[in-house]
Q: What sequence folds into this?
């Protein structure tokens, strides 16, 4: 299985939540355009799929995590501070979270 979802664990998405009360990619406009409605953390993804019997073959992310901060120096600084405080693995900090999983045949 290949799983992709907007990465609400990115520092920018966390900063967005602090500023606007919603995670990046999860507001009314994005819902109308993209259908994103339920933000889910990497921890929740890990728990749900592990408990369902899946094994993670690979986890990563892609996309510029600071792209949404273009044009706002204060917002970019907030995202960078959150990134520094959280000590998140840089490979998991992009805009889109990606995981490759498999479930053994029974």
A:
């Amino acid at each position: 299985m290949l799983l992709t979802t907007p990465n609400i664990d990115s520092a920018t998405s966390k900063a967005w939540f602090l500023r606007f009360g919603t995670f990046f990619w999860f507001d009314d406009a994005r819902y109308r355009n993209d259908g994103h409605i339920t933000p889910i953390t990497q921890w929740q993804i890990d728990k749900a799929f592990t408990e369902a019997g899946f094994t993670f073959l690979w986890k990563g992310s892609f996309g510029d995590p600071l792209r949404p901060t273009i044009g706002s120096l204060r917002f970019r600084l907030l995202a960078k501070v959150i990134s520094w405080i959280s000590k998140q693995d840089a490979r998991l900090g992009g805009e889109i979270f990606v995981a490759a999983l498999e479930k053994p045949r029974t």
